Amino acid sequence: MSRNIREEILIAAGDLVQQKGVKATTLKDIAEKVGISKGTLYYHFASKDDIVFEIADQYLSRFTNNLEEWIGPIGSDTSVEEVLQVVIENIAGFEARGKLHLYLISEAIMGNEGLRQRFKLKYEEWLILVEDTLKRVVQVTPAELRVLSHLVVAMIDGFSMQKLVGVEAIPMEDAARKIVCQKM
To answer: Pick from 33, 105, 34: which is nearest to 63 by CA?
Structure first.
């Protein structure tokens, strides 16, 4: 059976980034973990940034697909509170996403312009996805809908961070209920 070296590199690099962070992960570390030479690594990727971008693209696409999967079946007979609960619990509970998400965001914030642009585009996609879902179950103005989607996405990021640092009993259900109780 032939190896998919490129995929092995991405998996190894993703593991190392989660363990050590982007800056501390070297091409040598990645090559050693995969069991290849640095030359072979360079054959598949020109730089560490190329690897990080590919990891980010795969991760962001997978996350977007999961989001679509979780909220796709929601119908117009579902309450807003139920929609929020499904979105918040599934996404904030997606632990595999949490650490990598935070490392990539940190890298984007600290000056990696390529990652920042990728996140900016994906956040817009996620906002539209949440907005389209909420539109099915709540009657508000487009401006209120936009604000609500920003709140949901911000809550997801916040709950994910809280979960990673070990905050116990994150009140996701209460948060969903609180948003619903506000005048929309």
So the answer is: 105
Taking every pair of Cα atoms in the chain, the longest distance, rounded to a whole number of angstroms, is: 60
CB-CB contact of 149 with 91 (8 Å): no
Model-level pTM?
0.69
Contacts 24+ apart (CB under 8 A), 173-179: 173/85, 175/84, 175/88, 176/81, 176/84, 176/85, 176/88, 177/81, 179/80, 179/84, 179/148, 179/151, 179/152, 179/155
* Residues 109-146 pLDDT 10s: 888 888 888 888 888 888 888 888 778 777 788 998 89
User: Where does 3-141 have alpha helices with state H?
Assistant: 5-20, 27-34, 38-44, 48-71, 80-92, 95-109, 113-135
